[in-house]
Every structure is written in structure tokens, then in C-alpha cells.
Amino acid sequence: MRIAKSAPLIAFGALVAMALSSPIVLGQGMTGAAPSGAPSSAPEASPNDIDGEQMFATSCGFCHQQGGRAAGRGPKLAGLSKSDEFIIERIKKGKPGAMPGYARAFTEGQIIAILAYIRSLEDTGG
After folding, report:
1. With 90 as the cut, is the pLDDT of residue 92 above it?
2. What is the spatial distance between Cα 117 and Cα 85, in angstroms, rounded to a whole number?
3. Could you tell me which of 47, 15, 27 has the C-alpha nearest to residue 112?
4. With helix as H, strand as E and coil as C, how does the chain read?
5. Distance between CA atoms of residues 102 and 123, nearest Å
6. What backbone torsions phi and psi does residue 99 show, to the nearest 5 degrees?
């Protein structure tokens, strides 16, 4: 899948703007938890129902170039030898001064879908 160079930047900017302007939506609302006294929402989608490649492209692709296959502002992720637990924690907590944490922006299922996408990348040596 080829994405225009500006598309990830625009999507990333929209995600940041949404995060800054709507902490309630990104916090409690995205997790599927309902406020006390409110009816519970539908169960969270499973990682198999989430397009990890699309989520990666719109949220991570600005820094991890060519869909994670090449280094950019962030490292190349294809062929990454880190554990699944490390990658999940890095997505959730970020890296100070280098990568924002997405724990409040993504559900657990979305994070697992992004992890599955990263694991699907083949290291082409580039």
C-alpha cells in the first residue's frame, strides 16, 4: 500500500489535535468503559477486527517510514528483535523525547493489532 507523503502527517496532526482537545473521548470513551450510571457500551473489537496496517499508517507512519520498513524520525521496525511485551509497553508509554505514549489514545485491541502488523513486516535489509 502506497500512501502520499503528506497523509501520515495530516493524520498524525489530527490525532494530536484530537488528543489535546478531547481528553474525555480519548481517555474513558475509547476504552469501552461507561461512566457510572450510564449503560455499558458495546464490547471492544478484537484485534482481528482492527486494521493494524491502517492504524500504523495513520498514527505511526510519520516517524517509522515506509510502513515501518525504513528508519525515519523513528527506527525501522521490520525485523525488530524486541519482545512483544517491550513493543506493547513502548506503544503505551512512548520514549521520553522521542515518541509519545498512546495508552490513552488506543485500546488494548488496537495496540495488539499494531503489534501484529509490526510482526508481519519482513526485514528486507534496507
Report:
1. yes
2. 15
3. 47
4. CCCCCHHHHHHHHHHHHHHHHCHHHHHHHHHCCCCCCCCCCCCCCCHHHCCHHHHHHHHCCCCCHHHHCCCCCCCCCCCCCCCHHHHHHHHHHCECCCECCCCCCCCHHHHHHHHHHHHHCCCCCC
5. 25
6. -145, 135
From the CA atom positions of the chain, what is the Rg in Å? 15
Query: What is the model's pLDDT at position 118?
Result: 97
In one-letter notation, the amino acid at residue 71 is A
- Residue 117: φ, ψ to 5°: -65, -45
Name the residue with higher pLDDT: 89 or 37.
89
Residue 126 confidence class, pLDDT cut points 50, 70, 90? low
Q: What is the mean pLDDT of residues 5-17?
A: 46
Q: What length is written for the chain?
A: 126
